[in-house]
Description:
- Mean pLDDT is 85; it is low at 1-17 and 135-139.
- Helix content is 36%, strand content 17%.
- The radius of gyration is 14 Å and the shape is globular.
- It has a single domain (6-131), classed as Response regulator (Rossmann fold, 3-Layer(aba) Sandwich), CATH 3.40.50.2300.
- By secondary structure, it is α/β, with parallel strands linked by helices.
- It is built from 5 helices and 5 strands, in the order αβαβαβαββα.
- The protein has a 5-stranded parallel β-sheet, with helices on both faces.
- α3 packs parallel to α4.
Amino acid sequence: xxxxxxxxxxxxxxxxxxxxxxxxxxxxxxxxxxxxxxxxxxxxxxxxxxxxxxxxxxxxxxxxxxxxxxxxxxxxxxxxxxxxxxxxxxxxxxxxxxxxxxxxxxxxxxxxxxxxxxxxxxxxxxxxxxxxxxxxxxx
Length: 139
């Protein structure tokens, strides 16, 4: 599976463009790996997590530009992750995309987008490109 270290996800130098970092949370290594590799090939930095609890911990560490999360996972599911992310001031505005093979459920917190599995990677890329901030660090 393609994984970027925390150090790589956080590293940048003065005057260099800041590449948006995407956090992909999925307990299925095959699906998470395919998404991570595809987004890396499209120029994004990608960090992965295997469940919602690990995803929340990593989100607090790296402050990703976007979170993409499966719904059905052990320890903390995608909706639990969404609720916790929306309670944290430093992450409250982070776009979050949920994906699942089951229909979305009513929740007090709504994701920015919901993708029904299986989905087209090009469609995911379009969503990510619309949500990703375009930013550059001042030199």
